[in-house]
Amino acid sequence: MTLRIKREECTYTNSYCEENVWHICNYVRGNHPALLNECYAVFISNENQSVPLWSQKNSNNHQGLVFWDYHVIFIHYVNERCDVYDLDTTLEFPCSFDEYKTKALGSDETLQTQFHRSFRVIPADQYLTSFASDRSHMIKDGKWLKPPPVYPPIFNATSQNNLYAFINMTNNSDQEVPGQVLNHQNFVLRF
User: Does domain 7-190 sit in CATH 3.40.50.720?
Assistant: First the structure.
């Protein structure tokens, strides 16, 4: 079965991609529970927390280039079909993985090493039960860098904030957070 979620059906707050994707996972769990095991949250970051993505709405150049400290996307993968849901892209929603890898990810081969991306691929059901953020990463000098979502922060049974563990791409065996960390090449091969 093909999952089709419309952009306007999604909970969205600018600059809170990790929560936006959590809400997509939660939507699937509530409305299409049989498809949840085909879905993934994917954190994109690196050791320098400087990752380029193209075709992004927050860009002020014609290529749509943005350097994020991290970014999170949602993937639905079944029967060799893979769709990417990125609420911050100018591409179709969803778009095919092939289009997203070409127009939004590009290739690490053309990037300086410091900008090579890593991808933490997390099954959606595990993301729903393990992710937590108190949003403190968005506060500097007592002020919000970007306005927070209107709904309460997302906590789990054991944590109020483990966002940085999800962003950390140097330790793939961290028991606090699930998922497999892949380099760009292996990520593309995975989907």
Answer: no
CA gap 184, 54 in Å, rounded: 15
CA angle 41, 145, 64 (to 5 degrees): 60
Q: Which residues are catalytic?
A: 17, 71, 86
For 18, 25, 30, 133, 187, the CA distances from 52, given in Å and listed in that order, are 17, 24, 33, 23, 16
Phi-psi sector, 38: left (phi>0), alpha (psi -120 to 50), beta: alpha
Predicted structure pTM score: 0.95
Q: In the structure encoding, which two tokens stand for residue 117, read together? A: 């991306």
Residue-wise pLDDT tens digits, 14-31:
999 999 999 999 999 999
CA distances from 12 to 7, 148, 168 (A): 9, 11, 24
**Nearest to residue 19, comparing CAs of 132, 136, 125?**
132
**pLDDT tens for residues 136-185?**
999 999 999 999 999 999 999 889 999 999 999 976 555 678 999 999 99
- Please, which residues have CB within 8 angstroms of residue 135's CB and are 6 or more apart in sequence? 16, 148, 153
**What is the rounded distance in angstroms from the CA atom of residue 83 to the CA atom of residue 191?**
9
Tell me: cis bond preceding 147? Omega within 30 of 0 counts: no
Please give the single-letter amino acid code of residue 143: K
